[in-house]
Design goal:
Order of helices and strands: HHHH
Number of helices: 4
Largest sheet: none
Shape: elongated
Radius of gyration: 25 Å
Number of strands: 0
């Protein structure tokens, strides 16, 4: 695990822990002596299934190279902008020709990486949706009395 993943990983687990803590505090009933105990109501979108889905999707996102690809695309875009600004300062024809070649190479690399990322996203989102729904149904089935 690189240092770039540590803050995001810590944030994910902090949010999951906070939701778990909030769901536990909401789930503990307060009984009043004069009233009969409240009837249990099933909340299908809160509690453990929600945490399982959040955990599965967060862990699934963490395993993929999407964030690295996005960072590389941003870096290539910044490099392209740097070269364009550098071209505004330098008027030497040889330097301008090298800069134009560098820009074309950077654009080719960025477009190839964007194409790779987009092809990956075509199967990533449906897969993570099916896995998350399956995890939610499994936790509903395990919670069933």
């Amino acid at each position: 695990m690189t240092s770039a993943f540590v803050p995001r990983f810590a944030l994910i687990w902090t949010v999951i822990f906070a939701m778990l803590l909030a769901n536990i505090s909401v789930a503990t009933p307060i009984e009043i002596a004069s009233n009969p105990p409240p009837r249990e109501e099933s909340r299908f979108l809160t509690g453990l299934p929600t945490l399982v889905v959040i955990g599965v999707t967060s862990f699934g996102r963490w395993l993929t190279p999407l964030d690295e690809w996005q960072a590389e695309i941003r870096k290539l875009t910044e490099d392209e902008l740097f070269v364009k600004r550098w071209m505004l300062v330098n008027y030497d024809p040889a330097s301008l020709e090298r800069a134009n070649r560098a820009i074309s190479i950077i654009q080719q690399q960025r477009k190839a990486l964007e194409k790779k990322r987009n092809r990956f996203l075509w199967w990533y989102y449906p897969t993570i949706t099916v896995v998350g729904a399956g995890a939610m149904m499994l936790t509903f089935w395990l919670q069933k009395d």
